[in-house]
Amino acid sequence: RWFSGKARTVAETQVQAAIPLDYTGGRAFLTLLRVAYADGGAETYVLPLAHAEAGSLAQTALPEHALVAHVGGGTLFDPIYAPDFCAALLDLIAHQKHVAAGDGMLIASTTSAFPELRGPLDQPLAPKVSTAEQSNSSIIFGDRLIMKLFRRLEPGLNPDLEIGAFLTEAGNFANIPPVAGALEYDAGTRMTLALLQGFVPNRGDAWYYTLDTIAATFTGLLAEPNATPPGGAAALLDDSARDLPDAAARLLGNYADSAALLGRRTGEMHLALASGSAPNFAPEPFTPAFQAAVLRSMESRAQQSFDLLRSSVANLPAALQADAQRVLEHEGDVVARLRAALDQPIDAQRTRIHGDYHLGQVLYTGSDFFIIDFEGEPARPLDQRREKGAALQDVAGMLRSLHYAPYAVLFGQAPGVAFDEGQRAALEPWARAWHRWAGAAFLRSYLATVGDAPFLPRTRVALHTLLEAYLLDKAVYELRYELN
């Protein structure tokens, strides 16, 4: 699932480098493959490769999805499913080895946190490949470490490593998996092949925790047909400025505390990211050039989304076509609001941010939240993902995720829960109320945590206007995502 070019025609593949790695089962290669497409462009992927003789124990023990090809009387396979190969990868990092290959060098490194995270080197850590990853592959080592193998590579420092290492070494934000080490390939420009982190025991991500919570809430509400959902103010920022009304507190139940905790952890993350003094992390002021670039990006995304919606209306279910037309009628309003927010001077700082922040990027331990995956939006070039931005972009991403969640439950995405059309109609006002007040609880806690931090606009009006712009931008992005 990590190969992103499935819908494109491959014109050519070329081995850029084959990095040898000996392990108990034989010799493997960390292969860097350049994939060129018929429509232009190319991508580089990491594909570990090893060979097993026909009928050998290694071949018969392989899962089907590890097989690459049958060649030379045996099988070419991806050895990350071989425990000894995984142990060899970990050993590379533990001993900070350098391996020459092609025109470059594989460089293994550790952070100051590695010794404590790894534990005694003579203590074996059983590796297991995680089934949860999509764009990368992850190997869990016992209950101590997790290695993320980046399958698609780009030249430059991966922000997941860069930000994770910064927060680990700074020590001022504990709610991330600490970075223990990395594998990089340097052929003039470094590329991050793998990231080693401390393993955080968890109950899954905050998305599924939230869906399960909402599903139980909605099921209970069906037994109270005369209950009325709590209303809210016109602006979310106004609701966040007051305590939860009793009706909203009853609706959210224990999730009110969860939303507040998530807001606090988000604020702590932003404060930590704004604490750096090195050039790649030191806060910088919003400038007219920065705001103009953000506005151009937002306008471009809006144009693409509305164009796609226009061309898709006829293919939508009849019940949705009228809604689609109403959305299209507001295209000018959306663009006008984006311009109103960013055409005026903004007194705030831009900092490093998460960049792709939503409930799926947060682990839930049962009592706390840990924030993961600082790669940024995968579709954006790596250099753009390393740029400083507005903290409110992350805030808007989480608020949109809290909006998505109750509707995901209504439309059958919560495991083991399904509502019929009549039940969905009865529950939809509750879905609106749930996301409204969960968002208010999150935002109230976030704002209380960051206080008068200079990465937020100075006035409440400017804060409202800029937050609304990022919420609109996220919504039009999601529209295109869903239509595709």
TrEMBL record:
- Is Isomerase found in the keyword set? no
Pfam families xref list: APH, Mak_N_cap
Give the keywords, sorted.
Answer: ATP-binding, Carbohydrate metabolism, Glycogen metabolism, Nucleotide-binding, Transferase
Reactions mediated catalytically: D-maltose + ATP = alpha-maltose 1-phosphate + ADP + H(+)
Q: Name one GO biological process term.
A: glycogen metabolic process
Q: Which InterPro entries match?
A: Aminoglycoside_PTrfase (IPR002575), Kinase-like_dom_sf (IPR011009), Mak_N_cap (IPR040999), TreS_maltokin_C_dom (IPR012811)
Superkingdom of the source species: Bacteria
A single Gene Ontology MF term assigned here is: ATP binding
Name the top EC class. transferase
Q: Maltokinase N-terminal cap domain location, by residue? A: 1-76
Query: Taking every annotated instance into account, which residue ranges of this chain make up the domain Aminoglycoside phosphotransferase?
Result: 255-375
Q: Does the keyword Cytoplasm apply?
A: no
Q: What is its EC number?
A: 2.7.1.175
Q: Give the pathway annotation.
A: Glycan biosynthesis; glycogen biosynthesis
**What family is this?**
Belongs to the aminoglycoside phosphotransferase family.
What protein name does the entry list? Maltokinase
User: Which organism is this entry from?
Assistant: Kouleothrix aurantiaca
